[in-house]
Specification:
alpha+beta; OB fold (Dihydrolipoamide Acetyltransferase, E2P); 34% strand
Amino acid sequence: MERTGTIEVRIEGRNGTLELNPESYDIRDLGALLTRIEDLLFPGERKDRPTIGYRVEQGSVRHLFTTSMQAVIAFNAVLGQVKQQNSIDFLEVRTAKAIEEIQAEAVARGWMFTLSAGLPEAEQLVIDRTTSFQRTDDVWVDVELYLYGKVTNAGGKERANLHVSVPDKGTFLVQTPQEVIASWEKNILYRTYGLRVMGRQNMSTGEVDRASLKYVELIDHHDRFEKAYLSELRRKAAPWLKRIDPDAWLNELRGGDA
């Protein structure tokens, strides 16, 4: 049986004229918190994520979440890094956004959030009106990206998208117009393609904002060695390469003579 552990989110403050406790904590606030906790624990692929159990206890409001011990240990490590760096720029998009939303609620409501893991000598991260956990505004840029992987789903009643499973990276959802999907004559499901997309990327970490991806082009991708194609490229490049002085070229790369 898989070992489990606990994380805690304690909220202190007032809801109007009432001290916060499980009875005065509104269900809408609970719904938002549950989503944020899932983003904190499992920011990437969620298809096979462990179960997250929940209970609430007195002590202002103590939200207790039970899940796999591995996820609890990882959560504790994230809290430690955020405290040490006093920054969330290095986090994955969903994780950083969840902490930003908790920070915004702490400022708006005057509440104090204490996040911790149920481990010996666990880290504690306090978020309140005195803290400022927000991503750096200029760290995200618009970029063109290429995704190569298997298309596992396509469509959607309102917001159509493609689900592309990329090896070692998880599944990416790419916003795709319904008319584009309808125009494809052959079935693309469970086949490997390249997708040219537009999105946002973190300049410091390289992290891709998966919620920003928009379809540009579908590329028929063949993952095989094309000897004839490579030979033709070498033939075309040969005249240009002959004009290069290797020593001068290397010296230029190194910044010239010292």
